[in-house]
Design brief:
Radius of gyration: 24 Å
Strand content: 5-15%
Shape: globular
Number of strands: 14
Number of helices: 20
Distance between the termini: 60 Å
Bound molecules: FE2/S2 (inorganic) cluster
Length: about 575
């Protein structure tokens, strides 16, 4: 009954006996709407990250039209609004510099306007966590409609994945095994449609985790961007958000600790991007949930890796969708999930996936026949990373998972770029490449520079992988034995800052350790002499970022954006090994 329904927030704008309310109504009528549309109907904001500067999200205005159909059909009133968009391809120095800015844009746009609920349209990597973070803090009923992955890339008769195969093919070009004409063909076929990257990179990971968190309708994440079923999913989501408003189903009821643990479990079964660790901790912080880096490793150890999708597997996202998509994978690991967690459907996770079917066991493995017995991402500690580091073990080389070698150190990204193709770079297959000053404050912005390219001298000798260590992130489309997110970062005096060329470094993934092998007291002596570089920004958003950004193990949110009452993070002295 309508009388049992909650009072609509939007009526505070539109249904008051005041001059201001008259202007609010008049402003809507200036857009050509009749008075009926805002009389006791849920006003649904469609928060759109569409941009021609972001090819992954290029189709989201079409998706928005389908959402609107659903909102109208369910008795709501849709109003689309833009926010900044974060396109991985163009934004420099890195979209991660702006994730929190977008989250603030989303949160304040929702809060400031006459909205009762919101539909979040996302796709490219950071647009998904930024919208969830903003919506979680605003806490109005919200549903997410992801843009979906691109079609599989093609080069001749080969299927190629964005990023993953692009890097491999470019290495062939660097070493003269692909010519200019072939490179041009690859350029025309690697991104064949709108939609986000078609491997299990950060975008596919985060859109899948949005679904695992319960913020989308079941099956949303995996539908390819150009598939007509994405439009149908959008229309259905538009209908559902109107119901969710009447049910007062807010993110705070969905984004619980159980939901976050579900997302981590799904991430591990997907072999998902290492970036998910940072984003999930940040989302948790918005909800006052103290999610620890170590919890990812606990869940990783008990979760089998099932999604045979690049960069950790063989197939692409289109294949994953045809195999049954995320619901089929979630059904497979249901015993490891909190099946009773509430989702935006109003039903539980278990209820949502109960009818899911797997159509291809080569793409989505059975839990009894996994690709790897553990999850994709592992968390490392040691005297080089007292607050933690991450590595994607499923995309690493088995022979390097236990390794000891001499470091070759790049002081920063620029030095690495200048030297990496030198014919006289003094490196061997067993060398450990170390790159400093690429963390949240160091770069600044925590760019995806951690996948240090293989030195050309080694590529020419047929060496395809080596241990690489930095305080940067890595694109989810990347692969290799790459240790990332070293915390605390070198720019603020984390232990990575004092590694010198020739030092021995030990990596033991099974033991979850990464160690600098120097005599007792040597690291402390070097750290005592450490002096930070002057800040790279003196004003504007860059200064705000440097003043408030938290470290990788804390999710890289701004300290003032976490929920009030979120437990304080570990204040252990920077650079002091535990
Ligand atoms: Fe947008 Fe990869 S570039 S998802």
């Amino acid at each position: 009954m309508a009388t049992d329904r909650p009072k609509l927030r939007s009526q505070g704008w539109f249904a008051q006996p005041t001059y201001e309310s008259l202007t609010h109504r008049a402003a809507i009528r200036a857009e050509g709407f009749t008075p009926e549309v805002f009389q006791n109907r849920p006003v649904i904001g469609i928060c759109n990250s569409w941009s021609e500067l972001n090819h992954c999200n290029l189709h989201l205005r079409t998706v928005a039209e389908a959402v609107k159909r659903g909102v109208w059909a369910a008795g709501g009133f849709p109003l689309e609004f833009p926010t900044i968009s974060l396109g991985e391809i163009y934004m420099k120095p890195t979209t991660m510099l702006y994730r929190n800015l977008m989250a603030m844009d989303v949160e304040e746009s929702i809060r400031a306007n006459p909205l009762d609920g919101v539909v979040l349209l996302c796709g490219c990597d950071k647009t998904t966590p930024a919208q969830i973070m903003g919506a979680a803090s605003a806490d109005l009923p919200a549903i997410m409609v992801t843009g979906g992955p691109q079609l599989n890339g093609r080069w001749g008769d080969k299927e190629i994945g964005a990023g993953t195969d692009g890097r491999k093919l470019y290495d062939l070009y660097r070493t003269g095994r692909i010519d200019d004409e072939q490179l041009c063909e690859i350029e025309g076929g690697i991104y064949r449609s709108a939609g986000h990257c078609n491997v299990m990179g950060t975008a596919s990971t985060m859109t899948s985790l949005a679904e695992a968190l319960g913020m989308t309708l079941p099956g949303c994440a995996s539908i390819p961007a150009p598939d007509s079923r994405r439009q149908a999913m959008a229309e259905q989501s538009g209908r559902r958000i109107v119901e969710a408003v009447w049910e007062d189903l807010r993110p705070s009821r969905i984004l619980t600790r159980a939901a976050l643990e579900n997302a981590i479990t799904v991430d591990m079964a997907l072999g998902g991007s290492t970036n998910a660790v940072v984003h999930l901790i940040a989302i948790a912080g918005r909800l006052g949930i103290d999610l620890k880096l170590a919890e990812f490793d606990v869940i990783s150890r008990r979760t089998p890796f099932l999604a045979n999708v690049k960069p950790s597997g063989q197939y692409l996202m289109e294949d994953f969708f045809y195999a049954g998509g995320l619901p089929a994978l979630m059904k497979e690991i249901l015993p490891l999930l909190h099946g009773g967690a509430l989702t935006i459907t109003g039903k539980t996770v278990a209820e949502n996936v109960t009818t899911a079917v797997c159509h291809n066991r080569e793409v989505i493995r059975a839990a009894s026949h996994p690709l790897h017995p553990e999850g994709g991402t592992v968390v490392l500690h040691g005297n080089l990373a007292p607050h933690g580091a991450v590595l994607k073990q499923t995309a690493a080389s088995a022979h390097l998972l236990q390794h000891r070698g001499k470091a070759y150190v790049f002081e920063d990204y620029q030095q690495m770029r200048a030297q990496i193709d030198s014919d006289d770079l003094p490196v061997e297959a067993g060398t450990v490449l170390v790159m400093k000053n690429c963390g949240p404050k160091g770069a600044p912005g925590f760019p995806e520079w951690g996948h240090i390219p293989m030195p050309r001298v080694l590529l020419n000798r047929g060496v395809a992988d080596m241990v690489r260590i930095s305080d940067a992130r890595m694109s989810g489309t990347s692969f290799g034995t790459v240790v990332l997110h070293m915390a605390p970062e070198s720019a603020i005096g984390g232990p990575l800052a004092v590694v010198e060329t020739g030092d021995e470094i030990s990596l033991d993934v099974a033991a979850r350790r990464v160690e600098l092998c120097v005599p007792a007291g040597e690291m402390e002596r070097r750290l005592a002499a450490f002096r930070p570089a002057p800040p790279k920004y003196q004003r504007g958003y860059g200064k705000l970022f440097l003043d408030h950004i938290m470290q990788a193990d804390q999710g890289c949110d701004f300290d003032f954006l976490r929920a009030v009452g979120t437990p304080a993070v570990d204040p252990a002295a920077v650079g002091t090994p535990k």
